[in-house]
From TrEMBL:
Molecular function via GO: 3-oxoacyl-[acyl-carrier-protein] synthase activity
Protein name, as recorded: beta-ketoacyl-[acyl-carrier-protein] synthase I
Record GO cellular component, one term: mitochondrion
Short name of one Pfam family: ketoacyl-synt
Organism: Blyttiomyces helicus
Top-rank lineage group of the source organism: Eukaryota
Keyword flag Transferase: yes
Annotated SUPFAM superfamilies: Thiolase-like
GO BP term, example: fatty acid biosynthetic process
EC top class, as a word: transferase
The enzyme's E.C. designation: 2.3.1.41
């Protein structure tokens, strides 16, 4: 039996981007992986920045955190050079407050992948044929916890107007599309630990079926918080 027509359309990966516990950037992550470095840290004596809670009493205190930097990279210097992540290197000031950390990571990794691929669509047709497929299993549970605490203490007055957009899983893909003007398929996947793989698979099918010629695809997560750790421990 002849294969389906769409199966004949070849799909290739042309650019890569990464924000991981081993560092920001594909080269940094890959070199540290080959060097047998670990991204795991202990949460003992760590205070969660968003909620002010500690991890005391939680049986597992092992987590993989993205290494952070407090200042922007110097002008003209690759922000992924030292492997540390600073949101201002990747997201415009003011825009960062509209997003949660998993969206920040998606924006950074997408920027790297688009630059690596050398893809800079200049026509309406090219933008219409470029889509985004980025998923997340949980997103940022600490955003829910933080807003719940603020609502309990001060009511609606303290609730950010961005609370819902910061929680929606599909907004990682949405923000990437808006930043670059991509007008093709905008899709989000949420299938727990297989989310990234499914996002790449779905993106491949968008291209195979002719819905797009280029897709930015992957997964992003930022769910290490006392509540999330306690939930997984239980």
């Amino acid at each position: 039996m002849a294969p389906p027509l769409y199966a004949a359309r070849r799909v290739v990966v042309t650019g890569l981007g990464a924000v991981t516990p081993l560092g920001t950037g594909v080269a940094r992550t890959w070199s540290r992986l080959l060097d047998s470095r670990s991204g795991l840290v202990s949460l003992k004596d760590v205070t969660h920045v968003e909620t002010g809670r500690t991890y005391e009493g939680i049986p597992s205190l092992v987590a993989a955190l993205v290494p952070k930097r407090e200042l922007a990279a110097p002008e003209g210097v690759d922000p992924a050079l030292d492997g540390a992540f600073f949101v201002g290197d990747w997201v415009a000031k003011g825009e960062d407050r509209k997003m949660s950390p998993f969206m920040h990571y998606a924006m950074a990794a997408s920027h790297q992948a688009i630059k690596d691929a050398g893809w800079n669509p200049s026509t309406d047709l090219e933008r219409e044929r470029t889509g985004v497929c980025i998923g997340s299993g949980i997103g940022c549970m600490d955003e829910i916890e933080k807003m719940t605490m603020q609502y309990s203490q001060s009511g609606m007055r303290r609730i950010s107007p961005y609370v819902v957009p910061k929680l929606l899983i599909n907004l990682a893909a949405g923000h990437v599309s808006m930043k670059y003007g991509f007008q093709g398929p905008n899709h989000s996947v949420s299938t727990a630990c297989t989310t990234g793989a499914h996002a790449i698979g779905d993106a491949m099918r968008f291209i195979q079926f002719g819905d797009a010629d280029v897709m930015v695809a992957g997964g992003s997560e930022a769910s290490v918080s006392p509540l999330a750790m306690a939930g997984f421990a239980k």
